[in-house]
Amino acid sequence: VQLQASGGGLVQTGGTLRLSCAVSGSIFTLDAMGWSRQAPGKQREQVATITRGGRSNYAVSLEGRFTVSGDNTKNTVYLQMNSLKPEDTAVYYCKGTRGWIDYWGQGTLVTVSS
Predict the structure, then answer these.
(1) Which of 20, 68, 99, 100 is deepest in the core (most CB within 10 A)?
(2) Is 82 within 8 Å of 66 (Cβ atoms)?
(3) What is the secondary structure of 6-44 as a DSSP string?
């Protein structure tokens, strides 16, 4: 399984971005997908996950600003990020899970300027 993340960039505080994670093959072969992020000097943290059945979970710290969704026809998972803050600056990684195995895509950098 290969995952390709894209959509990062530079945005001002309060702006929006949508990250995409394209999966080689069908996303139905994965039990869940998600997004994590790693800010400079910090540990990687989980941001959002979505199961094959469509159930989503989010980090409490996001305060409802992010939304994870999937498009089965495009084998792509998205992370819509609204009301971005400088503390959201990080490299964002997408992840697919099948059983006990995690598949990671390369990161995409999100920079939020103040």
Answers:
(1) 68
(2) yes
(3) E--EEEETT--EEEEEEESS-GGGSSEEEEEEE-TTS--
Closest CA to 14 of 90, 68, 82: 82
Residues 6+ apart with CB under 8 A from 86: 13, 112, 113, 114
Q: In this predicted model, what pLDDT tens digit does every residue of 37-89 receive, in sequence order?
A: 999 999 999 999 999 999 999 999 898 999 999 998 899 999 999 999 999 99
How many Å apart are CA 55 and CA 3, to the nearest integer? 20
Look up residue 98 and give its two tokens: 């099948």
Distances (CA, A) of 62 to 3, 5, 67, 87: 24, 20, 10, 10
> Half-sphere exposure of residue 23, counting CA atoms within 13 Å on the CB side?
27
